[in-house]
Amino acid sequence: MAKNKILEIKKLVKHECETLGFGLWFYDSHLLAVEKFSKMMLKKLPKANKEIVLLGVWLHDLQRIRVLRGHHAETGAREAEKVMENFKYDKSTIKRVKEIILSHSCNSRVMPKTIEAKILASADAMSHYVNDFFLEIAVAEQRDVKNFKAFVLEKLDRNYNKKIYFNFAKKIIKKRHDIVKSFFTMN
User: 3-184 has which fold?
Assistant: First the structure.
């Protein structure tokens, strides 16, 4: 595995979070949590390709980080391809990473098929239950309460029921899911 390349990409993404207007909170609250949950799942699922998963971790949200218009996963996959080409990744690795980025949202035409794609989708969903993820979004995007609650409740349902592919991962996040859902359903 090209560990040094992945560390360089991680630094690049952190720098872009700091400088492109999305904010360092996204790196701290979301991306580091996606990395943590991905590594936890990689230990339980040793047949998965660690390099593909970790590249997906750091590149899956480039559309948001770079504040680009367009479909989140499709635009993000194109941006990820550019980054991986700059880091001299081979076409096969680029193709596999783009595939897991295209399916990580689980709300489009492309659903995760490979173990690596399922790990990224699951870790992405699990990351929304730690730190102050939803509160950070509310503040950053200045959302009104009613619409924001509807957004969070839809996202919580999709995260838990469609994006977390492994029962052991659901068990880890279940209590947090129930607490966050309860908080956003209060009147």
Answer: Hypothetical protein af1432 (1.10.3210)
